[in-house]
Specification:
This protein has about 250 residues and is α+β, with helices and mostly antiparallel strands. It has six helices and 13 strands. The protein folds into two domains: about 80 residues, Phosphorylase Kinase, domain 1; about 140 residues, ATP-grasp fold, B domain (D-amino Acid Aminotransferase, Chain A, domain 1).
Length: about 250
């Protein structure tokens, strides 16, 4: 696919200018997988295409549900055309069940504790500081986002979670938690942006943590070899196939 100049590059994607429309950008989904703020890295052949396919399925579902997103089209599995945004350096995490890092920060909470509505937490995107948690007041005081934008991110984040939770529940898969990001388009409207793929959530078929299909499998691996990477790719392929059903 023809692309314009490189605008930015991260661990798992490259953002290019659109060659024919300055209001758009093109995301290229890379085959890399990382954990521990990039301390663990590997390449899984075909992961980029699977991640792009999942992202396109998720954003198509959100667009159909009336959620404001940056997604425009997916001309190829590894490429996504999006509205060009200025990203807000926050990860917005919605938690339905207490697990993972939440338990480490809140050791008195039993694993599996249910949050209703989903708990919303913010983390400042800063690898050097290990993406520290940040409160609503500090977000505003540090100029990361305005107070009204914070409330929009909370409301829209829960709305996104509800749409995806319902879609997964229809296939007997529990959406345990979800990480999303927001950007501002040229007029300043907040849009759900970046990617939502198998690195963005915890999903447990039948609600069974032992059957997880998401990136946590890679994080949990004591040693990473070819067999482990093949197993992770298999799970990512299953997820891409399952999300194909979101809009069909």
């Amino acid at each position: 696919m023809e692309v314009g100049a490189t605008l930015s590059e991260g661990k798992t994607k490259v953002v290019y200018a659109h060659p024919g429309d300055s209001s758009l950008a093109i995301l290229f989904h890379k085959d890399g997988i990382t954990a521990g703020d990039g301390a663990r890295r590997a390449v899984i052949a075909g992961k980029g295409a699977l991640a792009g396919r999942t992202t396109a399925n998720v954003f198509a579902l959100l667009n159909a549900a009336g959620v404001a997103t940056h997604f425009v089209a997916a001309p190829a599995p590894e490429y996504t055309v999006v509205r060009r945004c200025t990203m807000i350096p926050l990860e917005v995490v919605m938690r339905r069940l207490a697990t993972g890092s939440y338990l480490k920060r809140n050791p008195g909470v039993p694993e599996g504790t249910r949050f209703d509505p989903p708990l919303v937490e913010f983390f400042l995107k800063d690898d050097a500081r290990h993406d520290p948690q940040i409160g609503e007041r500090a977000i505003v005081e540090q100029g990361v986002a305005r107070s009204a934008e914070v409330q929009t991110m909370i409301g829209e984040g829960r709305r996104v979670f509800a749409v995806l939770e319902q879609a997964w529940a229809a296939q007997d898969v529990a959406l345990v938690d979800l990480k999303i990001e927001f950007g501002r388009d040229a007029p300043g409207t907040l849009l759900v942006a970046d990617v939502i793929d198998n690195d963005s959530w915890r999903i447990w078929p039948g609600g069974d943590k032992g059957r997880m299909l998401d990136k946590q499998v890679y994080r949990n691996a004591q040693q990473v070899d070819g067999d482990v990477l093949d197993d992770i790719r298999r799970r990512y392929a299953i997820v891409a196939e399952l999300t194909d059903r979101f809009t069909h």
